[in-house]
Design brief:
Strand order of the largest sheet: 1-2-3-5-4
Shape: globular
Structural class: alpha+beta
Largest sheet: 5 strands, antiparallel
Oligomer: single chain
Number of helices: 2
């Protein structure tokens, strides 16, 4: 465990947003659902850079990112899927996978730069969205 890492110290997305374990990563539904289906895959162990991963682990993680993107595409029929792995705010390998809608208000901008009011799901909507993802992923 790296003591400076917020994820390793337990600061993860809310437990009720957890979709499930995928192998190398844990999948969470992002708290803000302005882009329906926006998820975050968090590497189960601490690493900050792709080159820190062994080739097999890196391939497994990227397969999981790709698998999730395919499911999001099937569920939401977006114009495009965005992938984000920056680590500037939380220095722990994690991927934002974000379906971009056909009515996207800023289709050329990164999803985190689109001005919007965050969309928080009701508990029932959250449960339904997570159940749909779990079913589609076979979890």
């Amino acid at each position: 465990m790296t003591t400076e890492c917020r994820f390793c110290n337990g600061e993860r997305p809310a437990p009720d947003h957890r979709v499930g374990e995928l192998g190398a990563t844990t999948l969470y539904l992002n708290d803000d659902q302005f882009f329906p289906g926006w998820v975050v895959l968090v590497l189960k162990r601490h690493a900050t850079e792709l080159f820190e991963l062994e080739p097999a682990e890196r391939a497994r993680m990227m397969d999981e990112v790709s698998r999730v993107a395919g499911v999001l595409h099937a569920l939401y029929a977006p114009r495009k899927i965005n992938y984000g792995c920056l680590g500037n705010q939380i220095a722990h390998m994690h991927w934002h996978v974000t379906p971009r809608r056909h009515d996207d208000p800023a289709p050329r901008d990164a999803h985190w730069g689109v001005a919007h009011t965050p969309v928080r799901l009701t508990p029932a909507e959250l449960s339904e969205r997570i159940a749909t993802l779990k079913h589609a992923l076979g979890l």
